Amino acid sequence: MEEPRVSAAGKLVSLSDLAALTAGARAAGCRVVHCHGVFDLLHVGHIRYLERARALGDMLVVTVTRDAFVNKGPHRPAFPEQVRAEVVASLACVDHVAINEGPTASETIARLAPHVYAKGAEFRDHRTPEILLEEAAAAAVGCEMAFIEDITSSSSHLLNRYLSPFGPEVDAYLADFAARHPVAEVLGRLDAARALRPVVVGEMIIDEYHYCSTLGQSSRAPLVAMQYLSHERFAGGAAGVANHLAGFCEAVDVFLQVGDLDTEEEWVRAQLKPNVRPTFVRKADSPTVTKLRYRESYFAQPMFEIYRMNDAPPEAAAEAALCEALAAALPGHDMVVVADYGHGMLTPAAIALLTAADGFLVVNTQSNAGNAGYHTIGKYARADYATLAENELRLECRVRGGEPHALAQSVARRLGTRALAVTRGGRGCLCVGGDELHEAPALAAKVVDRVGAGDAFLALSALGAAQGAPLEVLAFLGNVAGAEAAATVGNRETLEATRLERHVRSLLR
Q1: Same domain, residue pair 482 and 365
Q2: 3-state SS assignment for residue 79
Q3: What pTM, to 2 d.p., does this model score?
């Protein structure tokens, strides 16, 4: 008589229950095999892998990566964790499934203490940081590592082909880009960036988000009353750019302008990555620039902003001290990134010194509510690479309408740039260099907050520009970085090499 089939729901357990089940199986003399993965779109490669893993023991348990830890770009996972777990549990070869609690399986291996931890054969040669942690955890509990050889397939390839989060235009762009620029070439640019010695110069900006709920119209005045819920703070401005670069370079130096009133210098130091080395430039009678952004929490809708700053030019002594410090520091760097937010740090004397530097010069001049109309890239005599938002380009050229291509080429020629990138929000970006012009669509499938996306684009594309990467590679890298940044609030997360590598692999499979 055929045994009744165990429902997928009956196989789904908590991680605590799974630990108890594996302990009981070991006590009964059963050989426990553990597999772990995302399983975003179950395919024949997964099925063969799990069936062969089951043949290595008496019980097969599977842990599924939680949504928050799926590290394949902001457009993934395609399916939520509960659905992915249920699909895996529906396989006859699988005994129990749990959703993992941490970002890797290393802690889970220690908790389950299986006899065998099985991975696909592709991980034998692709030594990711997670695999190294999992191998160490397996060795600590006397667990055998097994690499399963069988059909090699890819959820990312299938999802990109049949369930893409993008439209036909973006899908066609990615297929064409991947055909001409293999993953190894693109990631090789990021690997080579470790040898660069960048210095970032610009204002420190504290981005402070205040989350509120709407109560309604005030009974005493024609205004909306809000109830405060919570707030959080991020290191933005030049500090955000330095943190992005630090994910790919051995060390990053940064000159940050802070105020001498409520400088928050210690807080700023704590927000910088360990390999970012700050030099603080104090501005007299000023707070550290802080931008308070009020957001309605339910709809995640921005309401209004308040700037705390003194954007007057610095005193002569402070200007001279900055110029002296820059003159001493710049020769030791092969890449100078100027993140000029127009809040008074960079005077004509400092700008002249920066543009005369020998290192590869990257410039971004941001137009914002505090400087619109007064601050454009026209302040700079030259740049090797520059990034501008389209509205910043139009302000520089004093041209409101029409296509931006000719405007970008005229600014690039005036600055003598090797490349100039114009970010266009949902329309992607435009890159020009000499007579060459390249357009690339946006890659953001999820937009949470646009604040900081331009800084991420600047940082990552600059690494490619400094190495002479083709325009289309600059555009791709910048748009990937922008997509990462747009998927989170402000600078809550900064660019990291491993996460970005997986994002790139996911897009180009």
Answers
A1: yes
A2: coil
A3: 0.81
